[in-house]
Amino acid sequence: MTKSALQVARAAYKPKMPKALYGSVKVEEGAATQSIADQEEVKKLFPNTYGMPILKFVESSEKVNLPVMNVGVILSGGQAPGGHNVIAGIFDGIKSLNKDSKIYGFLMGPGGLIDHKYQELTSDIIDEYRNTGGFDIIGSGRTKLETKEQFDKGLEILKKLDIKALVIIGGDDSNTNACVLAEYYKAINAGVQVIGCPKTIDGDLKNEMIETSFGFDTACKVYSEVIGNIERDCNSARKYWHFIKLMGRSASHIALECALQTQPNFCIISEEVEAKNQSLDDIVTEIATAVANRAANGNNFGTVLIPEGLIEFIPAMKILISELNDFLAHHQDEFNAVAKDEKRQYIIRNLSEKNAAIYESLPEGVARQLTLDRDPHGNVQVSLIETEKLLAEMVGNKLAEWKKAGKYSGKFASQVHFFGYEGRCAAPSNYDADYCYSLGYTAAALIGSGKTGYMSSVRNTTAPADQWIAGGVPVTMMMNMERRHGEMKPVIQKALVKLDGAPFKFFAANREKWAVGTEYVYPGPIQYFGPSEVSDQPTVTLKLEQGK
Questions:
Q1: Among 203, 345, 410, 532, who pairs with 216 as Cys (CB 3.0-4.6 Å)?
Q2: Going by C-beta distance under 8 Å and a sequence separation of 6 or more, which residues neighbour residue 208?
């Protein structure tokens, strides 16, 4: 491939990792674990992989040379910066255990395992992709691994290639599937280990053992650069309110981190909306009030950050969407057969009275977007709901009403943006390059230790990389039971923004000042080179969470 000057320079970057991983390692086992909730149900579903201990790798003087161990790797779900470095870390880690071991990449996600589409990843190929963004080394996909037929079909190719371990790099749903696969292969004594790696720019796959999911740092830096550029334009032209929707399927971690980095005039946190039981009109009134207050000071411009998943956190909307999801899970074909101009009335007729009234009150466009095809997990695709346009329009209408009543005399013009795909394949920041490589190398150490049903864990990441702690956490430890496609299923619990957590508290303590003033911060592009305090910085969220 033709390389840019930055790619050529980045190819030479040597990722930093925990010092325990540089030589032979031994495993320290912690106490037995249990699932985060629904312990009896989860234990019943995972009798072979439930209750395993947390693991920590420490330096060892014993030289280990394991037998040849072929490893398969799958990139699952949406792209996140640093995926290539995870694979490079697995490759280097496996080779350090036995130089004759091989790594095979299954093409275009979990579907490649089922369809037996794969490629051996040699050092020549791996070296082309070190420290680069994207998942293009083997591609990614959203096929869900969940049926016995799929597991057995996958096992055929794993046996043929003599693959003894499979690493699934993905988010909460992909790692849930990895855990189900690990349980099945253990139950039938298939001789295949399954290890997960925590990936998602949304930042919602985390707990005390998984400090952050990879890609979140880089994506937030990309979005914050562009938000800063818009804020500067906003402060230069002084005539627009910019409504900026940010990727984040459920949790508001991206919106919060970008607010901490750029200090916009207004930022909605979905989790707070739900906690306060706010309606759509409540949110619109709050934004309109901020617009009016700035206008009173002669500032007819500003920036509003909106999390992608907002609509599902407005309690009344959440109840409506839940009923819609359940209804469409069982009547999708019937709904598809209804004529286009009758779909709205068809939905209204089939909803409970209260939800039908809410649905009927929505603008035509938003109502239609709520009934579009579900994602593979049966959920509404929130990225297709143009919340930024909806809020800009409703705020404009509210201000027009206030103007008529003599309560507002400013000017209001809006611009709308959605930043999503722009951040998913960026070249990883130094933090993500280091973190991802360490996650991959840790996954190799877990494989070398004979483990299955574990997720690679690297902690203490606000410290210099040599002080990071590598280990593994049982995936069952993160699970609870949730309703999916109308049925209760075991899934990894999403980590939402904690309203009593340090990042949100810091934001809440400063937002009133940011709302009336123009306190914008312009972070600029990701710094790959330079002093460590500039180029190796983790997210503000992580630093506040760790009390740094």
A1: 203
A2: none
Three-state SS sequence of 204-232: CCCCCCCCCCECHHHHHHHHHHHHHHHHH
Q: How confident is the model at residue 249 (pLDDT cuts 50, 70, 90)?
A: confident
- pLDDT of 212 > 70? The answer is yes
Three-state secondary structure readout of 415-470: EEEEECHHHCCCCCCHHHHHHHHHHHHHHHHHHHCCCCCEEEEEECCCCCHHHCEE
Tell me: the pLDDT tens digits for 55-102? 999 998 887 778 999 999 999 999 999 999 999 999 999 999 999 999
**Bridge pairing between strands 454-459 and 266-267:** unpaired
The alpha-carbon radius of gyration of the chain (Å, integer) is 24
Q: Report residue 95 CA to chain centroid gap.
A: 30
Q: How far apart are CA 254 and CA 258, in angstroms?
A: 6
pLDDT tens for each residue of 162-196: 999 999 999 999 999 999 999 999 999 999 999 99
**Average pLDDT for residues 518-523, to the nearest whole number?**
97
Q: What is the pLDDT of residues 352-406, one digit of tens each?
A: 999 999 898 887 888 888 888 777 666 777 778 889 998 999 899 999 999 999 9
What is the spatial distance between Cα 529 and Cα 9, in angstroms, rounded to a whole number? 10
530 contacts: CB under 8 Å, gap ≥ 6: none
Please state the rounded mean pLDDT for residues 509-527: 97
- As annotated, the active-site residues are 202
Beta strands in 219-361 (DSSP E): 241-246, 266-267, 302-307
Say whether 394 counts as a known binding-site residue.
no
C-beta separation of 167 from 443 below 8 A: yes
10 is annotated as contributing to ligand binding: no
Give the tokens for residue 456: 């690679």
The residue with tokens 């709205």 is 344
Ranges of CATH 3.40.50.460 domains, the chain = 219-238+245-392+500-527
Report the range of poorest mean pLDDT among 174-188, 309-323, 360-374, 468-482: 360-374
Q: Pinpoint the residues of the chain covered by CATH 3.40.50.450.
A: 31-215+428-492
pTM: 0.93
Vertex 199: Cα angle to 310 and 315 (nearest 5): 20
Contact 214, 439 (CB under 8 A): yes
Q: How many CA atoms are closer than 13 Å to the CA of 2, on its beta-carbon side?
A: 0
- The pLDDT assigned to 89 comes to 98
Q: Would you say 349 is a known binding-site residue?
A: no
User: Does 257 carry a binding-site annotation?
Assistant: no
What is the CATH T-level fold of the domain 31-215+428-492, as seen in this structure?
Rossmann fold (3.40.50)
Kind and range of the H or E element at 267? strand 266-267
CATH, domain range 219-238+245-392+500-527: 3.40.50.460
